[in-house]
Write a structure and sequence with these properties.
Helix 6 runs antiparallel to helix 9. The chain is of the alpha/beta class. Strands 1, 2, 3, 4, 5, 6 and 12 form a 7-stranded mixed β-sheet that branches. The protein has 13 helices and 12 strands. It has 2 domains: 179 residues, ATPase, nucleotide binding domain (Nucleotidyltransferase, domain 5), CATH 3.30.420.40; 180 residues, ATPase, nucleotide binding domain (Nucleotidyltransferase, domain 5, 2-Layer Sandwich), CATH 3.30.420.40.
Length: 373
Amino acid sequence: MTHPPFFIGLMSGTSADSIDACIADFSGSAPQLVATHNEPIDADTKASIHALTVSGRDELMRMGHLDQVMAVAFAKAALKVIEKAGISRDDVRAIGSHGQTIRHQPEGEYPFTLQIGDANKIAELTGITTVADFRRRDMAAGGQGAPLAPGFHRAMFGQTGTNTAVLNVGGIANISLLGSDDSVIGFDTGPGNTLMDGWVQTHQQRPFDADGSWAMSGAVDEALLSSMLSDPFFTAAPPKSTGPDYFCRDWLETHIQGVADIPPAENVQRTLLELTACSVALSLNDRDLAGTPPKRLAVCGGGVHNSALMARFTELLPETEVITTASLGIDPDWVEAFCFAWLAARTLDDLPGNEPAVTGASGYRVLGGIYRG
């Protein structure tokens, strides 16, 4: 039986700014990114998403409503990228939808992770088979359900004989260490953009700090930085993953209130940028975690557009060449969406999508639920 050649990947990250949609072709010798589309998330929906990452009134009703709102948005993004590609729905074998993360609690007696954006609705609105809920099968097998990208990173960027790290700087930052022997390990390093974006939104009424310009108008508050880096997450051994429900505004305020002199807002922003840079560098310089520092660090995600942050990676990692994934053949803005197209293809071909060495699962598992179009 001949299957349609294309897969769609849908990704909405913890920053909840927009939905990334891409069309991928895995039928040739090398996977191809065929078309891309970015579907903005309106301000009210974004606020509703962020409100659900912490406990509040009438959560169940709000979550049920938002589950449907996001499903409509995901379906819209999928249909628009099909239109851009100039193909028909019949040419798409499946959609892989990450969903919108609301909570991620990988520790405790009953760990759980929750992504919304009803896949039934996506399949119904598009008429295309949709694969979703990728994380929970890994978690059921004793894993953390995240990060899921390292397997994809190895497939796309791994090169025998070359030690490479791939860093995604979204709301949360995660890293994949691709060994020269084709091995892979990976873990979340801590906050990426989430704390910086939240702080600049509060104090400058902007969604993000373009190029880190506001941050660089301030100075690092060493006491605040030391306090934040003392969080046990940063020194915990993998497997480890986290989310904006942990590295949230309350977490930040606790550390700000704990220093003797509360710093001005621009100094806090500068210190948050330094927190992201230092937490990544500490992970890569930790011989127990990363072995020898990687030959190169390929960065993707929204953080690549923060030139101040990219400069700090270069300064803190003198033994490592800092590049973006564009140098390895994939635009850094589309790596995550591409990943979920790949994961959908793995699921429909009955192939595992997790990496037990990364998540801590008891073995390889085929991930996700399949919702027929």
